[in-house]
Amino acid sequence: MVPVILHEGHRTGHSMPNLHLDHFKEVRTRPSTSSLSPGREEPKPTMSPLLRLLLCCCSCWPPVLSAITVSRLPGFRGALPFYLETGYATVDEVNDSQLFYYFIKSEGNPEEDPLLLWLSGGPGCSSFSALAFEIGPVQFEIAEYNGSLPTLVLNPYSWTKVSNIIFLDSPIGTGFSFSRSTKGYEVGDVISSKQIYTFLRKWFKDHPRFLSNPLYIAGDSYGGKIVPVVAQEISQGIETGQQPLLNLKGYLIGNPLTGERIDVNSRVPYACQVGIISDELYELTEKNCEGEDYEHPVGAQCVATLEVVAEFFQEIDYTHILAPKCSLTSLKPKAVTGDRRILKENHDKYLIPPPAPALGCKSYAHYLSYYWANNHATKEALHIQKGTVGEWLRCNYELPYKRDIPSNVKYHRKLTSEGYRALVYSGDHDLAIPFLGTKEWIKSLDYFIVDDWRSWHAGGQVAGYTRTYSNNLTFATVKGAGHTAPEYRPNECLAMFKRWINHKPL
């Protein structure tokens, strides 16, 4: 079994109750055993002479991925109207640790359109969350679960309309990624970032036709903490001439964690500004907690004050303050013990099904994804290696993951100073990582304002507000959106992304 540790929400002692960055938690562990390799696939479309020469130069590289094209998905009616590839790449040879990915070609011009690598948050949340709930070409049809396979339909606001996207299950132990050794799961910010770079180099060796496409690293929530670290790994690889040379152009992050105190401390002033707590409680918190880390308070008066604040926070959905508060689609670890953790292969029976939220809750789609991803037909269609993941979890928070990069702000400063583009966007109704805190760490970069605060529009309406800084840094709020902005405002977020990726002002 994978070693189990308690995530920060289980710490004892005085602290502000930990509100995880991803709302609905599946906190069970999974086994890792035996091996089977799916088939390999390497399509060769018509290439320019330059790319043909590049491929010849790369002919000494053996295939490094287990990849296959998926033409149909269970629950989706008919053949897929887009190109989907799934596969694995080994990123730790010693422990045989393999990262699983979904690759979807652009619906526009895949040979020239940008290529995004998407990292979801947690840490421990599958990139399928982004694929099915945020920016991918399919989404779940919301209907009460009746025991049959949930239905997938097209998402009209998919970012794949203008970009190729790799959705990566990282770190190891996330989604369908796995290790054949328990040591392989013991990673953190540093190791996982290096493993993601290793994945990319291997992926491009098997897909050299995409080497000339503009490359962007993207993600939200905790993924937003890792994105600039991965981008820096790539930048250093370019500087030292590591092959293949990647065409990195920049990165984009949504409601991102940095590791700085302001990520959590900004919740209190934000809560006051939107009327969740009183002015008096805000002022008392400022007084009693001066200089304190609100997530790890020390002083007795600060602890007592933050406990009062927490009572208000616990009454609402902190990922979107206007949304109804719904039940979690997860169970506590103690509810899952011993061999009952293991899902029997080749049977559509589930370990302990997550509790069903109300049908009108945003989390109902998350609930449906559990049944879809754990269905045997789905695993067959995605070519999941048998015996590697007993139970798919949307978010696995029991990974032995080390948060060993205290702050990523220095990575932002270095990358943008070197000319890489950056888009930082925030759903303005998110209490988990409020836009107030994001504005503060951006301000700490001390960049000049190029285009001052103004509204940006979509569909003839104000969609948010934006400010552009020197060094190609753009900040934008998404009006009415929560922690995972495209999940709440898909049309507006597609408009924002489409303009930015095409070097147009928001």
Uncertain stretches of 5 or more adjacent residues:
1-63, 330-348
Give the DSSP E fraction (strand runs of 2 or more residues). Answer: 15-25%
- How is the main sheet built? 12 strands, mixed
Range of helix content: 25-40%
Mean of the pLDDT scores?
Answer: 86
Give an overview in words.
This is Serine carboxypeptidase-like 17. Belongs to the peptidase S10 family. InterPro entries: AB_hydrolase_fold (IPR029058), Peptidase_S10 (IPR001563), Ser_caboxypep_his_AS (IPR033124). The chain is an alpha/beta fold. Helices cover 27% and strands 17% of the residues. The strands form 2 sheets. Strands 1, 2, 3, 4, 7, 8, 9, 10, 11, 12, 13 and 14 form a 12-stranded mixed β-sheet that branches. A two-stranded antiparallel ribbon has the order 5-6. Helix 7 packs antiparallel against helix 8.
Keywords for this structure?
506 residues, alpha/beta, twelve-stranded mixed beta sheet, two-stranded antiparallel ribbon, 14 helices, 14 strands, disordered N terminus
Quick structural gist:
With 506 residues, this protein is an alpha/beta fold. The chain is 27% helix and 17% strand.
List the helices and strands and how they pair.
Elements: H1 49-57, E1 65-70, E2 84-92, E3 97-104, E4 115-119, H2 128-133, E5 138-140, E6 152-154, E7 164-169, E8 178-179, H3 189-206, E9 215-220, H4 223-240, E10 248-254, H5 262-265, H6 267-273, H7 279-288, H8 300-313, H9 364-373, H10 376-382, H11 409-417, E11 421-427, H12 435-443, E12 449-458, E13 461-469, E14 473-478, H13 485-488, H14 490-501
Helix pairs in contact: 3-4, 4-11, 6-7, 7-8
